């Protein structure tokens, strides 16, 4: 959740969602639920009681409360020490964090025009508020004093890490800059925050704006019955009953490209997808990208770095752009070779079917499906009936029960963030409450695209007791037709396991300070990506892959096909990912941005110099690359590949025991990776688990590139 990440990055405090306050602003309609402790099961937010009108007063009061808390730290007569300065600062801003974490999550999962306008309205005030804290000389002086005397304080590892991270965050926030540069930094932070919000909102608007309307049944050739039924319901909801509407949401556009026999329609929806944010309208993102890149570079130079990537990577595992490019190059060479092999297969298949000319981007998924069918006698429509949504997530629960002994029980009588969400209580092996998990699966116009894991409350300690987290998984899976169960693709099943890995990281967290809860961006994907290895493991598929109509196990022959075909298409998948990672880094190693900077030309040059196939665009083009332009993964999209080096090697630890459910290995992974937050350097945490640093060999083998 971007808004929460802002809080973590700037002031190192993400507070509990049920923190009470005795300060209230006037309410005209009802009692503002943010101004009192939540009287709900497990202290979850009272979603059914929160009105849009509650957010702004709570934001404003939250900023005022934290301002007074900071003043109290500064004005105390006692000399600065760990408790009265570091801990007091770490625990400040509970009301602001409370409303921020709920608003941020809801603004992604169930937004509205009013919420988006409020996001923009409050952005300058919030940016100024955080800058007021990070650039407060008296507060920094106290923190610096404690930092300089830490050798005399007898701090434990977690306390030492909090002190070091807090001091570093203040320095990275500009605390050591002279007054004139601090003033410019404030302006830059405000402008950048608003630009990132604008980019994300434009992307959502463009995604929702496109519709491919079909009114001739013959134009549905090749599409699955389930996809056709969903498209008919989409048309009915849009007042066009009797037609079929396909959208740019992934569960619609991707299977359309995969199965539609109508090449001209594939081209139309493909180009609609690629041109989001590039339609020269009020949601065009080209100028936004140019401004973001320009201002980020200025900020980096202001902070003493040559480029923005150097600034961003300074506190990550990779450390330098040279190390990032080394990894990307090592993967790119075999990926491009494999993609060229796949292209030859697809071109031959297209020509065999009597279609002349060169295979295009809108043909790739269609003919890839045909080649896979020819090579392995497998297509997605065979697999989906065995991947029923509820059985898949119960399969996840089975895996982690085998690994860690934990359990999940569905809860009905609890407030939910959306009517479509479901809720579960997670308990440890000894029955201890670990946290609450929400899951929200299907696309809607009010939900941004993709899949993610967030929180409505971070794990912390209160009155000496662990306060359990409230976690949410949000997806955009293929929505079933009315009366039918939701059936997933293989990619969707893996996505669910991926996000569940993030959820486990949150549920297992056990730290005493918010400031040590986070890990570097290029380490955070390890817990999620390792879970993908269990998703399609034969031992796991045998548990949850049951035919939705007959209940029959997935046949051994089909299991074998999935296993053998698993590496086919990795040239395409790896190439499109690495291309996006290159693009992200290329933007942020710029040391100058000319006034006539052309975003599309820059993107084209980035791909051309690597001899990228024109049929494989980057997974995210510049104008809808929300990971980097919307914030969160700026100069950091490479992190998925960096973490894949770790997760591929980490899963080898399980395989080496001869049992992918080995509980001793799982305990080490929980103890050293999932539980301790960031109290150690990331590589130290990994070596503590694995006993050695990882190499790229397992990654390349897993992807069939070696």
Short overview:
By secondary structure, this protein is mostly helical. Helices cover 55% and strands 6% of the residues.
Walkthrough of the structure:
The chain is mainly alpha-helical and 706 residues long. The protein contains 28 helices and nine strands. The chain has helices at residues 2-11, 52-75, 82-90, 94-109, 113-134, 137-148, 157-172, 179-209, 225-237, 250-259, 263-274, 286-302, 308-313, 321-352, 361-376, 380-383, 389-404, 490-508, 526-535, 538-544, 556-565, 570-588, 599-608, 626-629, 639-656, 663-674, 682-690, 697-702, and strands at 212-214, 244-246, 407-411, 422-427, 433-440, 452-457, 460-462, 465-467, 470-474. It has a five-stranded mixed sheet with strand order 3-4-5-9-6. Strands 1-2 form a two-stranded antiparallel ribbon. A two-stranded antiparallel ribbon has the order 7-8. Helix 14 (321-352) runs antiparallel to helix 22 (570-588). The radius of gyration is 25 Å and the shape is globular. 50% of the residues are buried.
Structural class: mainly alpha
The beta-strand count equals 9
Unreliable spans are 1-28
Query: What strand line-up does the widest sheet have?
Result: 3-4-5-9-6
Q: Termini distance? A: 36 Å
Radius of gyration: 25 Å
Shape: globular
Major sheet summary line:
5 strands, mixed
How much of the residues is beta strand, in percent? 5-15%
Helix content: 55-70%
Mean pLDDT: 93
Count of runs of 4 or more consecutive helical residues: 28
